[in-house]
Amino acid sequence: MNRKMKIFFMLLPTLLIIGGIFFIGILKGFFISLGYFPEVGLEKFTLYYYKEVIKDKAFIDSLKFSLYTSFWSASIGVLVGVLLAYLLLEKKNKESIDYWLYKIPVIIPHTIGALIIYNIFSQTGILSRILNYLNLIDDYNDFFQLVYDTHGIGIILTYIWKEIPFVVLVVYTVLKGINTKLSEAALNLGASKRQVFFHILLPLAGPSIMGTFIIIFAFSFGSFEVPFLLGPTNPRALPVKAYIEYTNPDLRHRPYSMVINMVLSAISFIFIIMYVKVFKKISKYE
């Protein structure tokens, strides 16, 4: 028995338990979304709940809101993270405090991150109090509403703060692994550092950057705690809407929640396919 097969059989019991729980849950949720929930008297398969949810304006608004916050948090996070990774690559002193300081948000849970953003950027937070003390605003209510706002700024700020270090860790490792002779040759031929970055380093790190974007986007899209703590009441993020539908005391209402969960699962599956394709490109490059 070769080493790979031995490792597979050693992991098989754990994989069966975890995989079994996961797939049974998905299958049960799928059946309920189709109206089959015999525990409460629903015993006929139907697409009625899918039609009702898709026609619901609140669902469409929630889907748009989740896509919007996920796109901007992932885009800004990746953009800033790539630039910081490049600056770290060019930094000579690798042991300075700022070289380690950016990693702190990685170990902080998203829930704590949401509370930090709330305490700083809410209308009664630290920033508004400082501005009020400096007489730049007359009242706390004059401060911009950055939390519980319909644009999801508080949500986006939390994800950006949390995910930039993740992007830096991934992209910096990739940039560090690129053969320095490529950059040195370009510089000797008269290229500027800006040209080296955009025409050599960035294209070579492109697949990893795209993979990082997909991971952050997918996580933000399916995350519950941050939009639950900082999001508006209307529109709600899709995971929050699914939770509210799930907690409805009428169990016959449960299929609506499962439909939303199936939509979330389907979109997440699309992200997985995209990431696998990107990962193949990364492996090919390596």
From TrEMBL:
<protein>
    <submittedName>
        <fullName>Spermidine/putrescine ABC transporter permease</fullName>
    </submittedName>
</protein>
<feature type="transmembrane region" description="Helical">
    <location>
        <begin position="101"/>
        <end position="121"/>
    </location>
</feature>
<dbReference type="InterPro" id="IPR000515">
    <property type="entry name" value="MetI-like"/>
</dbReference>
<dbReference type="GO" id="GO:0005886">
    <property type="term" value="C:plasma membrane"/>
</dbReference>
<feature type="domain" description="ABC transmembrane type-1">
    <location>
        <begin position="63"/>
        <end position="275"/>
    </location>
</feature>
<comment type="similarity">
    <text>Belongs to the binding-protein-dependent transport system permease family.</text>
</comment>
<keyword id="KW-0472">Membrane</keyword>
<dbReference type="Pfam" id="PF00528">
    <property type="entry name" value="BPD_transp_1"/>
</dbReference>
<dbReference type="InterPro" id="IPR035906">
    <property type="entry name" value="MetI-like_sf"/>
</dbReference>
<keyword id="KW-0812">Transmembrane</keyword>
<feature type="transmembrane region" description="Helical">
    <location>
        <begin position="196"/>
        <end position="221"/>
    </location>
</feature>
<feature type="transmembrane region" description="Helical">
    <location>
        <begin position="256"/>
        <end position="276"/>
    </location>
</feature>
<dbReference type="InterPro" id="IPR052730">
    <property type="entry name" value="Sugar_ABC_transporter"/>
</dbReference>
<feature type="transmembrane region" description="Helical">
    <location>
        <begin position="153"/>
        <end position="175"/>
    </location>
</feature>
<feature type="transmembrane region" description="Helical">
    <location>
        <begin position="7"/>
        <end position="37"/>
    </location>
</feature>
<feature type="transmembrane region" description="Helical">
    <location>
        <begin position="71"/>
        <end position="89"/>
    </location>
</feature>
<dbReference type="GO" id="GO:0055085">
    <property type="term" value="P:transmembrane transport"/>
</dbReference>
<keyword id="KW-1133">Transmembrane helix</keyword>
<keyword id="KW-0813">Transport</keyword>
